[in-house]
Design a protein that fits this description.
- The protein is of the alpha+beta class.
- Helix content is about 25%, strand content about 15%.
- The chain has one domain.
- The chain has six helices and ten strands, in the order H-E-H-H-H-E-E-E-E-E-E-E-H-E-E-H.
- The strands form three sheets. Strands 8-2-5-9-10 form a five-stranded mixed sheet. Strands 1-6-7 form a three-stranded antiparallel sheet.
- A hairpin with a 7-residue loop joins strand 3 and strand 4.
- The longest helix is centred in the N-terminal third of the chain and has 52 residues.
Length: about 325
């Protein structure tokens, strides 16, 4: 009589344990591979944005500025920003047809309607927050990439020499006067006298906890009626599609503040409160974020990068001489 031998309970448990160990070993590798793919897609998005900007420059002989303003208007003007102006260069023709640069950003039939279109090229796949999180912008998609408006505050290695600025009256701090993407003014490639390989074009800000995500089409606006970029100190400004580099807001400042418990989701408490001011250059890529240079190259900016390097690449014409890897 033949007998059939099956697995004993102990053998079965051993097999299950081995499978569990193998899965545990394999899962981090799978997750790392997936993140590497997401980071590569993010890099490609920035590359395409940079190429689109250069194509825009070839056509217009300048870079897009961040918003338009009309002197003497009785209502505040908040028009569309640099990403809206780059739409024809990134296969966003349908969305561009909806944009009316002579109307306010929230015009229901034009600009607000365009903002309900998901622009994959403006979104990092490592960030799951893809829509505006405030401002009454229902169903508006956001962006994770912002133009470099320049550096603010004290220059590298100085406690007295400050960068030039258009105005100090902004909820973002000082508004710089040394970036390739300017508020109001049109800059061209000749403005980057530090060299295109030494001047940043776009930075990434893609953090799920960021409270400052707004519609991707929005541009800088001045709050006080009757002011414009030629009279900057007559109005209080909000910046939307460009951001500025300040020493205090280092790479992944918000993520690190949250890890320390030094944060708040409301104003008034914590070093970085609310979150909306703490995530200027942030990502879910471990250790840093992506950015692009004016020569079209894309790099990964470590959260340990020197402040001097960070400020130097923000300024297009500051004459700084700090290379990556320097102190």
């Amino acid at each position: 009589m033949n007998s059939r031998r099956g697995f004993t309970l102990v053998e079965l448990l051993v097999v299950i344990a081995i499978i569990g160990i193998l899965i545990g070993l394999l899962l981090p590798a799978v997750q790392a591979a997936r993140e590497a793919a997401r980071r590569m897609q993010c890099t490609n998005n920035l590359k395409q944005l940079s190429l689109a900007t250069h194509n825009y420059h070839d056509i217009n002989n300048n870079f897009p500025n961040d918003g338009y303003f009309i002197v003497g208007k009785t209502n505040r003007q908040h028009w569309c920003g640099i990403l809206a102006k780059l739409l024809p260069q990134i296969e966003g023709g349908a969305e561009y047809e909806l944009i009316d640069f002579n109307r306010n950003y929230n015009d229901a039939n034009t600009n607000a309607a365009a903002a309900k279109s998901k622009m994959t090229a403006f979104l990092c796949p490592s960030c799951t927050t893809t829509k505006s999180v405030g401002g009454g912008e229902t169903d508006w998609y956001t962006t994770h990439y912002y133009g470099n408006g320049g550096s603010t505050g004290f220059r590298p290695d100085s406690t007295t020499d400050k960068y030039g600025q258009i105005t100090t009256r902004s909820n973002s701090g000082e508004i710089s006067d040394n970036g390739l993407f300017s508020v109001g003014y049109h800059r061209n490639i000749s403005y980057a006298i530090d060299g295109t390989s030494n001047t940043a074009l776009f930075f990434e800000s893609s953090w799920n906890d960021y409270q400052g995500f707004r519609g991707w089409h929005r541009g800088t606006y001045v709050v006080n009626a009757g002011s414009d970029y030629q009279q900057p100190n007559n109005g209080y400004w909000n910046t939307c599609s460009v951001k500025f580099i300040k020493r205090e807001f280092y790479i992944n400042a918000g993520i690190q503040a949250k890890a320390r418990g030094d944060y708040s989701t409301t104003s008034g408490t914590g070093r970085f409160s609310p979150f909306r001011v703490a995530a200027l250059w942030t990502s879910h890529h471990p250790g840093g974020c992506n950015f692009s240079m004016a020569d079209g190259s894309v790099k990964f900016l470590s959260e340990t990068v020197s402040d001097n390097v960070f400020l130097s690449i923000g300024s297009a014409n500051g004459g700084e001489n700090y290379a990556f890897g320097s102190n």
